Predict the structure.
Amino acid sequence: DSSLFPIAGPRYGIRAAFTLPFRVLPACGSESIEFPLATFECLGIRLPAAGGGYFRISPYRASRAAIVRLNRRGGAATSYFHPYELDAEEIPRSPHTIPWSLRVSQGLMRSTVEGKLRRLLREFSWCPARDLLDQRETLTGGRVLDLTALPGQPARWVESGVTAR
């Protein structure tokens, strides 16, 4: 599972984050493994390819290329989908007045989601993240988000023992 998008987004995202799975060392408690949401690079800009509205409005080839690239680098492509995005008729059949801005942001290209998702499921092998945890050392490749610093100190992104960011 992931709550981290390694992008510089207008509302969320951490551009400095690793794009491949990494260990998270908390100040207290147990370490965890983060599976960042899939991204792709275009003209030097890291863009989302994982799911939701990004998957809906992006061409299928962008999502496919991102997954191929992640797999070649030894990563796992983490994706997500909102169940409502598979219902292309939800907004048109709604008895409520839906503002134009919401119709566009939530409905644009929704009719493409099911077909693109079916292609992803057919063209790639998928598994729950928990199935990959036995491979955590290989999977994380020395990438660590170290949150053990003193309060007020920034988190450290470390790769193979060297502070990366």
Observations:
- Residues 60-72 form the longest helix (13 residues).
- The chain has six helices and seven strands.
- The longest strand covers residues 22-25.
